[in-house]
Design a protein that fits this description.
This protein is an alpha/beta fold. It folds into two domains: about 170 residues, NAD(P)-binding Rossmann-like Domain (Rossmann fold); about 40 residues, Alpha-Beta Complex (UDP-galactose 4-epimerase, domain 1), CATH 3.90.25. A six-stranded parallel beta sheet has the order 3-2-1-4-5-6, with helices on both faces. α2 packs across α4 and α4 packs parallel to α5. The protein is globular, with a radius of gyration of 18 Å. It starts with a strand and ends in an 18-residue tail after the last helix.
C-alpha cells in the first residue's frame, strides 16, 4: 500500500512514518513544517517522498493524495491553549484543512483514511473511564474542531463510501515530542525536569488524575 501522512514531520506523524518505512511501505508526507521538524525524519527522509505544503491548499493536497491508498491525517494545530488564543486559525486548520484532506482523498480514490481526533471532545465528564458512546461535550475551540472533523469523516464514509476512522488521542508522549514548546504535554516536561535534577511542577493538590497514551 502507498500511504500519505499529513503532518508527517510532527511528533506522532514522524513515528508513524518511521514504522511504515520499517515495514517497507511506500510513504509520502505532506507537511508545512510550521511545527513539524525536519530532524524528526532525518534518518529516513531518503526513503520517503516529501511534499512541503499546507493541508488548506487544495491543489497541493489534491496532488499529494494522487496514487495514495491510505491517508493518515495527523496535521493539525494541536493545542487547546492556542485554540483559545486564536480560535479562527484553529478552525481554519483543523476544520477547513481536514475537509480539504477528505475531499482530495475522495477525488483521488483513496481507500481508507485515519483521522487524529482528541479526547478533548469528551469535556469534563464525571464518569471514568471515558467511553466512545458518551455524549461529547467539547469545552474549547480545539475540541470543537476535532469533533467537527469526526463528523465530517462519518459523513464522507456514509455519503461517498470512503472508510474513515477517528482516533481520540489522550495526553500523548513519546519520541520526537518537543519538551521545550510552551504547549508541550506534562510527561516530557516532567522527564526534562528530572533529567536536569529539577523538581517537577504540579498544579493543584496533586490528587488529580490524567490519561496518557
Amino acid at each position: 500500500m502507498k500511504y500519505l501522512v499529513t503532518g508527517g514531520a510532527g511528533f506522532i506523524g514522524s513515528n508513524l512514518v518511521k514504522e511504515l518505512v520499517s515495514r517497507g511501505e511506500e510513504v509520502r508526507i505532506l507537511d508545512n513544517f510550521s511545527t513539524g521538524r525536519r530532524q524528526n525524519i532525518r534518518d529516513f527522509q531518503s526513503d520517503i517522498e516529501i511534499v512541503e505544503g499546507d493541508i488548506r491548499e487544495f491543489w497541493v493536497t489534491l496532488d499529494a493524495c494522487k496514487g495514495i491508498d491510505f491517508v493518515l491525517h495527523q496535521a493539525a494545530l494541536t493545542s487547546v491553549n492556542r485554540s483559545v488564543e486564536n480560535p479562527l486559525t484553529s478552525n481554519d486548520v483543523n476544520i477547513s484543512g481536514t475537509l480539504t484532506v477528505l475531499e482530495c482523498a475522495r477525488r483521488q480514490g483513496v481507500k481508507k483514511l485515519l483521522f487524529a481526533s482528541s479526547s478533548s471532545v469528551y469535556g469534563d465528564t464525571p464518569t471514568l473511564p471515558k467511553r466512545e458512546d458518551m455524549i461529547p461535550n467539547p469545552l474549547s475551540p480545539y475540541a470543537v474542531s476535532k469533533l467537527t472533523g469526526e463528523y465530517y469523516c462519518r459523513v464522507y464514509a456514509n455519503l461517498y463510501g470512503m472508510p474513515a476512522i477517528s482516533m481520540r488521542y489522550f495526553n500523548v508522549f513519546g519520541p520526537n515530542q518537543n519538551p521545550d514548546s510552551q504547549y508541550a504535554a506534562v510527561i516530557p516536561k516532567f522527564i526534562t525536569s528530572i533529567l536536569n535534577d529539577e523538581a517537577p511542577v504540579f498544579f493543584g493538590d496533586g490528587l488529580q488524575s490524567r490519561d496518557f497514551t
